[in-house]
Amino acid sequence: xxxxxxxxxxxxxxxPAQTQALLELIAGEARDSLLxxxxxxxxxxxxxxxxxxxxxxxxxxxxxxxxxxxxxxxxVDIDEDQVRNNTYADDAILGDVQTYRFGPETFDVVICYNxxxxxxxxxxxxVNFRDALKQGGMILIGAPNPNSLSGVxxxxxxxxFHVWFYRNIRGIKNAGQPGEPPFPTYFHPLVxxxxxEAFAAAHGLEMIYRRExxxxxxxxxxxxxxxxAALVDAGAAVMNAxxxxxxxxxxxxxxxxxxKR
Length: 261
Ligand SMILES: C[S@@+](CC[C@H](N)C(=O)[O-])C[C@H]1O[C@@H](n2cnc3c(N)ncnc32)[C@H](O)[C@@H]1O
Description:
Layout: H1 20-24, H2 29-44, E1 50-55, H3 65-68, E2 71-77, H4 80-85, E3 91-94, E4 107-113, H5 122-132, E5 133-144, H6 149-156, H7 159-168, H8 193-202, E6 205-213, H9 217-224, H10 226-242, E7 253-260
Parallel strand pairs: 1-2, 1-4, 2-3, 4-5
Antiparallel strand pairs: 5-7, 6-7
Helix pairs in contact: 9-10
């Protein structure tokens, strides 16, 4: 497999190039947070060659290009089409991240981005990731916030509604076809950020980065479907007004980095 990249000519000339996945992420809090994640990774990762495990890697990476460029990337994904379409991994393995085991202390970084919400056994997956990490290695998790407006709707609505939303609101015509998102969701209790943090602390993982962000679906909807977005924004504003001060139900996603002690 070869590593493909797209250079971001739109950013300042000194800024590191970004992957296609990040370029496609619409400007907003989620993108800002990912750039913050990149800074942490650049600061904390050792120099030289890196070993990276993308758990449920799919076919695109959110890692910075300069990190990808000096890494051996192993992807494990349960979907044959996702594995076949992957162009950036050095090793792409068809497998289940809940049961697939690597040798101890194999990786510098594990990335599990938009995946834990799809897993019935998040606990098993997290323990596998921790065991496969070198000491001081990091797990990057991006996931939906089950307590947000989009989290509650996603958690309690049927899969056909997710497919409808992707096709009609997001405009992704092949959504729901084999190997294409959306994938079925489970929302195991550990997807809730407070529970994830407690589990991590009890399993030798320190949370060194944590940020809840407005779901990128909001800026995307405002651009694509302004009327629909205005209705959703108004509903969110009403909920924020009646919920405890400081709550923002639009914070539909989060990013965390866990470091192995
Ligand atoms: C929403 S996609 C995210 C893909 C990629 N990480 C990204 O952010 O673009 C979820 C991915 O998780 C994979 N997946 C779901 N359950 C899995 C499991 N038990 N083991 C491995 N991969 C899994 C799906 O096949 C899919 O590729």
